[in-house]
Amino acid sequence: MVVLLYSLPMDRKIYSVTELNRLVKTTLENEIGSVWVEGEVSNLRRPSSGHLYFTLKDAGGQISIVLFRGSQRGVPEVADGRKLRVCGDMTAYVERGNYQLIARIVEEAGKGSLQEAFEKLKARLQEEGLFDADRKKSLPTLARHIGIVTSQSGAAIRDLLNVLTRRFPNLHVVLAPVKVQGDGAAEEIANAIDTLNRRSDLDLLIIGRGGGSLEDLWAFNEETVARAIARSALPVISAVGHEIDFTISDFVADVRAPTPSAAAELAVEPLAQWQEQLATLQRRLAHALHNQALTYQNRFIRASRSYVFREPQNLLRQYRKQVDSLQWKLSTTLKGAARGIHQQIDEIELRMTHRITSRVEKQKSLLERRASELNSLNPTRVLQRGYSITRDPSGKVIDKVALATPGQPLVTLVSDGHFTSTVDTITPSPKEP
User: Fold this and answer.
1) φ/ψ bin of 282: left (φ > 0), alpha (ψ from -120 to 50), beta (otherwise)
2) Is 193:147 a contact under the CB 8 Å cutoff?
3) Last residue of some domain: 201, 236, 269?
4) Could you list the residue range(s) of the whole structural domain that residue 394 is in?
5) Which DSSP string corresponds to 343-360?
6) Which of 103-117, 122-136, 153-167, 401-415 is predicted least confidently?
7) Last residue of a domain, one of 329, 347, 366
8) pLDDT tens per residue across span 166-202
């Protein structure tokens, strides 16, 4: 059996944690010093101090950057997804044992891939009109049933439920749990929005998550989520990240909330506020009813003291006088109207008599003309001039010799009577040459 022994140097140096961190800090500052580094901004934080803390990353790694407030003059916009070139001093944070770059100079190095994809999709959806104000729906005045699309284990759902329960304890909340980052998160979020829209008992939707880097929030920048929000029949509040974070969902949603807690505050007003408003309305109604009752009471008192109730007989006599006056006026009016009507009847009668007389004269003259014409056509007038009419026994006029036969009896009509005869001989008139 072979035993290998490892011996430690007898003059070993043992550092405390603080000493080692200080040694690393000194080494970084002295050996590396100022450097230029280029990468994409991620996990940007803006505390109240005004300093900027963020990470520069590329495909293989990342480094922490701090940009103090005094060094921010003239630097380009620092935002998640932007690609920057930073010059600064390498150092280490002794208390935590991590190293960072203290930025002195910041330059824009072109857009990062995520930021470029974000801006392209934003521009395309905006051109389609998905961000237009006229397509955004108003939030309901009193939402009693709220759907929430977020992670069931994240801080966002805790913040939402805490605020909603505090503001309106008997609110009905339906949670559609989804992944809010990573592969498949966008599809889960879009499917959850569609599923909640198929329910008939919801008033609005809240979608979102807590803060994070651009990569962490990227599911809410996916087109599939934007399309699901756009087709939602329910009003949608987007509550993604912190106040400084903006996603495509924020632009498409009907209302954007800077945080999940703010979304809960936008969704419902406090129950106490509704109760206070109701109490105010009740007081105003009671006051109005009291004033109305006083008004009617005062009118009743004035009416009971009026002349009508004190001297009702005088009022009756006054009305009787008015009735008598009206009757006299009516009688006078009717008499005048009757006289006028009689006069109109006389005038109409005179005009009708004249028209009838004139019409009779015209008809009489026409009748005489027609009688004269008839007399001129009367065959007896012809007989008076020496002519006669011969008929057979049936009354048919014999006006041609061809109609007579020998031995045929005939009746001849003359001016003062008629006589009968018998045909002996028929002699036709000679034909003209």
Assistant:
1) alpha
2) no
3) 269
4) 383-421
5) HHHHHHHHHHHHHHHHHH
6) 103-117
7) 329
8) 888 888 999 999 999 988 999 999 999 999 999 999 9
